[in-house]
Amino acid sequence: MTARIGVVTFPGSLDDRDTQRAIRLAGAEPVALWHKDKDLKQVDAVVLCGGFSYGDYLRAGAIARFSPVMEPLLEQAKAGLPVLGICNGFQILTEAHLLPGTMLRNNHLHFICRDQKLRVENAETAWTSDYTAGQEIHIPLKNIDGQYVADQRTLDALESEGRVAFRYLDVNPNGSNNDIAGVTNEAGNVVGLMPHPEHAVEPLIGTGRTDGLPFFTSILKKLVNA
């Protein structure tokens, strides 16, 4: 039996079906989770997908953080459940304090949609082990609240502990501190990033490359070999 990876849909989610397809292409079984679910249906990992949950009212991710599904997710993530937050999912993870820092409006105050060059900084997490540290990849990016910020103490800790997972290359598209595109928690089971790996899993879509597929093959291999 293959691994079962849940994908949470909130009101306003956009990329749940794309994420399910990416999981399926990697060889795992996607499991649809609804924001009102009070259990995670015994999945082996969870992805919080991109979109504009609850219309991004108050702040991006601020309302979704209190959805019923987040209660078991918080509990299980702290116990080691692998969780990936993509774009709005990353924002939700910072609002839930599963990842440090927060997201602000892009420094140029415009929505951005582009293929973005990244460098893999940490290839030892549950979601990045099929990459190599220092590898350069291209992943689609689309957001307006994508500027990652944190206080200096937090930034210093992220850098010294190797918890910056991905960094923007060539151009910083949103003013993020230290060119940070994604981070991980101390245990390496929770990862968040603003770019969209689910849009880079087939040659005919996204960047025309498959640079995003290793996110999903990484977690599959970890779960199968556990």
UniProtKB/TrEMBL annotation:
It comes from the Bacteria. SUPFAM superfamilies: Class I glutamine amidotransferase-like. SMART domains: GATase_5. The active site is at C87, H196, E198. It holds the Pfam family GATase_5. Keywords: ATP-binding, Cytoplasm, Glutamine amidotransferase, Hydrolase, Ligase, Nucleotide-binding, Purine biosynthesis. Pathway: Purine metabolism; IMP biosynthesis via de novo pathway; 5-amino-1-(5-phospho-D-ribosyl)imidazole from N(2)-formyl-N(1)-(5-phospho-D-ribosyl)glycinamide: step 1/2. One of its GO terms (cellular component) is cytoplasm. Part of the FGAM synthase complex composed of 1 PurL, 1 PurQ and 2 PurS subunits. Part of the phosphoribosylformylglycinamidine synthase complex involved in the purines biosynthetic pathway. Catalyzes the ATP-dependent conversion of formylglycinamide ribonucleotide (FGAR) and glutamine to yield formylglycinamidine ribonucleotide (FGAM) and glutamate. The FGAM synthase complex is composed of three subunits. PurQ produces an ammonia molecule by converting glutamine to glutamate. PurL transfers the ammonia molecule to FGAR to form FGAM in an ATP-dependent manner. This is Phosphoribosylformylglycinamidine synthase subunit PurQ.
